[in-house]
Design brief:
The complex is a heterohexamer, with three copies of chain A (112 residues) and three copies of chain B (453 residues). Chain A is of the alpha+beta class. Chain A contains three helices and seven strands; from the N terminus they run βαββββαββα. In chain B, helix 2 runs antiparallel to helix 3 (75-102), helix 7 (211-229) packs parallel to helix 14 and helix 9 (275-303) packs antiparallel against helix 10 (308-322). The chains are: A alpha+beta (112), B mainly alpha (453). Chains in contact: A-B, A-C, A-E, A-F, B-C, B-D, B-F, C-D, C-E, D-E, D-F, E-F. The complex binds adenosine-5'-diphosphate (ADP) (3 copies). One adenosine-5'-diphosphate (ADP) sits between chains E (7, 35-39, 56, 58, 86-90) and A (27-29, 62-64, 101-103, 112).
């Protein structure tokens, strides 16, 4: 099984979620994060004092999937999250050893 | 600090020299002429209301105005300062403050004739300076109401100072500082300006609602405190240390309540519900509005965006500047005062502060000091005989401007000297500043043991 | 838009026809009969207080009521609109607005006799319409106080409109719109209704505190603006775009301050501290309370839960509806007006809005337009001779209902036409709406360069 | 519960016994002596203002004071309780409440002579108890204003109770409870104390602004409710269940508005803008300030840190305690009352509550019950003939202390009994408490379907 | 070493933490997240407009442990976090290469 | 490629970010988290009721890097985040299979 962790622009959440549910993905976890990257932040000025805000609001989506779903999932996320402008985000894929559903104790594929 | 003392002495010298030039006939005796020795229920109603309005300015008005501008980890500590000052000053006012300010005494300070508020006649209209047959002032309200109205002024003034040193002063030091400052700086200066026995009243200085007593006083004390306490850790270090206001909605609520409450501050300073109060309210509104717009447009053209903080800061600057003028000028005077105040205080909170290199964190000096000086000076320019009984420069009396500058000089001199003295005393005894880790962890947690989730 | 214009013309036609049927003897001359040419300190005290209360309604009242209902990224932009309007209107009122509304002029608009507020007598009681020997109205307060009280009404009215177009109007467009609208729409309509020379005053239209002048006016302008600006990006698209209010605690503070301030709005419209003011305060309270409950129970039974937003919206709806009626009806009338207003405005903000397909984002029309129409009409039903000197339908005078409908028609007609004209002028010059990315990133950051953490 | 009933009965017995000892000549007839049968515009102005100020205490004052202290998931439910009570009580007051409290009726309750507010004369000054030739009280304000002022008291009292049972009472149960409690507990006790026909008025009990009627009453009802409803799920279980206040900035705003509004509450209880009102305002300020400091220093010395919550709680405690005394004592009396109230209420909200083992969540009893008892008793100690016409213990009249204790006893007895009765009735019909999952998910979502982001 | 990432219901945090400290686990990191899964969200209505809130508040607990602790840790979490109702959450286990304690520079097992 | 996940004290963010950009690291993602560890929390008292706050505010930094950068990155973070006092935080390193840049679809090293 794989863990897909995608950083996206916040206003793209609904489109990404819809794309994923379209693939039958039933579960995901979302976290509000701040991103630093090529996309520049902005400057805020308060009474003459400038504050450079270099971290931008992003959302992190984590989803555990079966290894054979990786490609379709990545395509779905890229398709839904892309605006073509800098700062669209990244997807990181790693392996997971085991998944357990707390309610039932089911494991791995059954737990997804 | 040396510079500070040098300039203070200079100002004092100037003031004392100037004093010889003042014609005492200009003194604000208009009020004294009123022959009405009965309580007027309408005037009393308005003064009770005004007292409530001015209290509203400090809690929660100023508390929020300041609280919204600090970092989130210091918001409770900041709002608590205003609230604690409110409690502390009320008690001190009852014991000593009111007596020092508003009993006859000498030209420099009152006596202790109202210690613990003994001797107020509940049902008679207040006669201020009864011991001075010629110069006493007859009010149409009970002394208790006058005392309360003035108490709310005594509360907001030290609370204004806190803007200069948020995020780093010890709470215990704040309480000691406020107590000493109230009795040594505020009460005497209030006596000078607002009691017929006072030296600046005698000199003909015009200060309808506290341009010198409240705003210059608080602004200068703030500047001195910012210099003596030093900067917040990391301030000006660049590299992303972020001192941005955490929630300007709070500040906007605060500025709004300051504005509404200022109607009591200025129109209440007429001590009656009459035409002068109405005019004071009108010019207060106009100056606040104009200054809000003038700061906003200045920032918009120089920085590309009209910020919420700029707009509300401008309005407060206008309110500050119209304060000494409010019973003396007409709407056009107010318009110009507001215009100038908005631009000058914007300059004070940006260019001047950067040039000075001090960390007047929430611009107590930049807004209240600068705005107070602008207002107190322009009162001498725009005063109209038909409004407050005294003519200013535009009615051909340039002397009033000099008189005003003398009042400003006196106030700055004594305030700067005495404030510095008090702060050094505290610094070398209980200490002024929190520990570095306390500052880093935030004062809410380290001083008060609480947090905002 | 075509429909809008069609209906507006229809209403105008109806109004003009109806005018012939009005007996001018019904005109509100009661006030004119007062023979007291001296300033009354009690009345002045109450009017100074009322002015402060009505200012409190806009800043911070309305600012918070609206600010809590938008998304977090737009909260500063929203509260700043109310604050900026406050500053802007105050200055315009001094220059032109007050003159256009409250000097005698013609039945359609005043002259410029109070340009820059020249000519107000500081110490005499105000005589409105001095040029009209027969119809002038003698007050017991100075003109400065009357002018200030009316200024706060002129401030809140355009601020109310902003609820219709939050999250998408350019700040510069807002300033231009407000300026034009104040002078072209608000000031003339205030003149029609509240000056003895005004065409609707002459027709006997009853509007104690601004049901037509303030609420229908703001509501209709909001509807027109919502239609011309179009919907917020993503609004109504389904699929999870979330426009839910970000912090209803702010809205509840706002609604509370609106309620408290409304005592000044309605009871202050008696221009005196007398029995009529007391009764106006009582009916204001009762209508607000009843409407809060009626919206809440309506929603509870239809949707299963009594929401905080419903309760406070209902109270505001009740306050809107009682506004024109407040000096004319008794508590029972208020109870029914509140009941009807709660249910009708709930319908206006839900069913009607959905049916209309427009994005009146915070229901400026749904609450103020609908509530104003309900209140202005029912004033004609429940007016009692013993309260305000005029009988309504329930005392056997059905003509008063017609008169009220004429007032409503006039107001809607001119407001809709002129508002549309102003907005199209702006649209085709500097533009009305922010860029899509600005809207997406939130107006706090994109227009003002600030954020709430 | 058994203990509760036992103690209530005991208190009642004590009260009835004591009654024989009271000299009716001590009754508050001072007011009745006023021979002025005309409306005074100044007094009316102040009472209109006071009404607005007292409304401000509940919405948004108390709503925020309480809302800031609960967990974030319950903040809307908490503030909505105060707002809904405001709406509900206003309507009930119009129908029944005002009549039951302020018409002559019997010594125990009024009649229904003002059902739907019929029969108020709009333009005459109010004569309370007109049916009692000897004891009637002549006011200088219209009855509508008196009725409105009293309405705001009737609103805040049940709203205070909610502090005892936040986070767990059903909204429907709250509405039923408030309705019953207003008519069965509040209105009769107000009649006992504040109507010249009332049994406690006759006994000479002094309660200037509601120490017994409002605060003891609300505090005791809160204690009974906390006992009958039981604790919040997880309360006192240790192990990290966290009930810490989520945002004390809201509570500080609330406490500030309570303080400012309390000027209307206490100084407004003079029913006139006169010297007694001025003195009432002064002692209110002093007691609030002193109590804030005394709680703060008590906590600082015992717990090591001066908390914001302690400071503001202390001020509220001082305001509570000075309420019954405010028209009877001088500043020195207020100072001592404040000092005692700060320490005693700190004890009430900490040691006493822990000892009692009940979950009076926001200390309705600890602050209002304890503070009210402290204040009502000390009124009997510090009352001065020169202020309110009645001497207390320090002027050699120990009987007044007994009289005060009788008033306290009566109030506690009836309030405890009737409140328990009402709550059990609700418990066994529609139920008092939300479901465990609703409590866990937060009442904002589960009761009102809304959340604060 | 393994990284255990558990999604749980917020009000279960204290019980889970106690269960883990009972096993001698000395460190963990908690993040507020929003979860999407079989558990349905709710609908909020504001003046007639309905907003479907499909993401529910959850907590994510991350803890690095020695590989041999996995089973006891999973059992402890499941035991403490289970309510038996839908939405109880999931546990994901993956491998970590290295752990460093910032304060001391200690590595791996010593750093846990 | 490796994923570095570092828990640090909040006020150290700027120094850590500067140290990393000094190494040419162009992207990172930051999350506000609560940490439980050897560093004790504090107690808050509200009207006599004590609340033990055992979770302390921390920041989690995640960055994907090439495997050969691990050592320098760890050294940079440790150097910048260390105060020498308890609670300085920890660094966890694991492997990632794949990285995708949403905007361009670039993969792995190109996507970093
Ligand atoms: N190496 C990285 N490790 C972790 N997060 C990263 C990394 N690079 C980028 N990100 C995340 O992706 C977001 C978008 O990256 P950015 O460089 O701004 O634009 P783009 O995705 O178009 O290259 C960043 O804000 C950050 O949150
Ligand atoms: N495949 C997944 N990847 C990541 N997080 C998931 C996944 N499935 C479920 N979750 C998380 O677990 C939570 C609970 O899942 P849910 O399906 O609602 O109930 P249950 O745990 O009873 O099956 C979700 O809210 C989500 O945060
Ligand atoms: N085993 C672990 N798994 C996950 N996070 C941990 C672990 N141990 C510590 N942490 C995180 O690191 C932070 C610091 O750890 P702590 O034990 O307080 O101090 P130190 O880093 O000095 O050992 C904790 O607050 C927690 O967020």
């Amino acid at each position: 099984m794989k863990l897909v962790m995608a950083i996206i622009k916040p206003f793209k959440l609904d489109e990404v979620r819809e794309a994923l549910t379209g693939l039958g993905i039933e579960g995901m976890t979302v976290t509000e994060v701040k991103g630093y990257g090529r996309q520049k932040g902005h400057t805020e000025i308060y009474r003459g004092a400038e504050y450079a805000v270099s971290f931008l609001p992003k959302l992190k989506i984590e989803l555990a999937i079966n290894s054979d779903q990786v490609e379709t999932v990545v395509d779905a996320i890229v398709g839904a999250a892309r605006t073509g402008q800098i700062g669209d985000g990244k997807i990181f894929i790693s392996s997971i050893d085991q998944v357990i559903r707390v309610r039932t104790g089911e494991k791995d594929a059954d737990a997804l | 600090m040396q510079n500070l003392i040098k300039y203070s002495l200079l100002a004092l010298a100037l003031a004392l020299t100037g004093l010889g030039m003042i014609d005492p006939a200009l003194a604000q005796e208009a009020a004294a002429a009123a022959p009405a020795p009965a309580i007027d229920s309408g005037d009393t109603a308005w003064m009770l209301t005004s007292t409530a309005l001015v209290l509203l300015m400090t809690i929660p008005g100023l508390a929020l105005f300041y609280g919204g501008m600090v970092r989130k980890m210091n918001v409770l500590a900041t709002v608590t300062q205003s609230f604690a000052i409110c409690c502390l000053v009320a008690v001190l006012w009852m014991f000593f403050g009111y007596s020092l300010a508003f009993t006859t005494g000498t030209p420099y300070v009152g006596d202790m004739g109202r210690f613990l508020l003994h001797g107020m006649d509940m049902n008679a209209p207040f006669l201020m300076g009864a011991e001075m047959p010629a110069g006493s002032v007859q009010f149409t309200i009970p002394e208790s109401v006058f005392m309360m109205f003035q108490m709310t002024f005594a509360i907001i003034t030290p609370a204004l100072i806190t803007g200069a040193f948020v995020d780093r002063m010890k709470f215990s030091a704040l309480l000691v500082f406020t107590s000493a400052w109230l009795l040594i700086v505020y009460a005497p200066i209030a006596h000078w300006v607002w009691h017929p026995m006072g030296v600046l009243w005698g000199a003909g200085v015009l200060d309808f609602a506290g341009g010198t007593v409240v705003h210059i006083n608080a602004g200068v004390a703030g500047l001195v405190a910012a210099l003596i306490l030093g900067k917040r850790a990391g301030y000006g270090a660049g590299g992303g240390h972020n001192f941005a206001p955490h929630n300007l909605v709070l500040s906007l609520i605060g500025a709004s309540l300051l504005w509404v409450g200022w109607f009591g501050f200025n129109a209440g300073s007429a001590s009656a519900a009459n035409g002068r109060a109405g005019m004071a309210m009108a010019v207060t509104m106009i100056a606040a509005a104009t200054a809000g717009l003038s700061w906003m447009f200045a920032e918009w053209s120089l920085r590309g965006k009209p910020s919420a903080l700029g707009l509300i800061s401008g309005s407060v600057a206008g309110l500050v500047a119209i304060t000494p003028a409010s019973g003396f000028v007409d709407p056009e005077g107010a318009l110009i005062i507001g215009l100038v105040a908005g631009v000058m205080c914007y300059w004070g909170a940006t260019t001047l502060k950067r040039a000075g290199g001090y960390d007047d964190s929430l611009d107590a000096f930049g807004v209240h000091g600068v705005g107070g000086i602008v207002g107190a000076s322009l009162t001498g320019v725009f005063a109209l005989k038909g409004i407050g009984g005294v003519s200013g420069l535009i009615e051909g009396n340039p002397g009033q401007v000099i008189t005003q500058l003398i009042g400003i000089g006196y106030t700055i001199a004594w305030c700067a000297l005495a404030t510095a003295g008090i702060l050094y005393m505290i610094k070398f005894t209980i200490g002024l500043r929190v520990e570095p880790e306390q500052e880093r962890d935030g004062l809410d947690l380290s001083l008060h043991g609480e947090t905002v989730l």
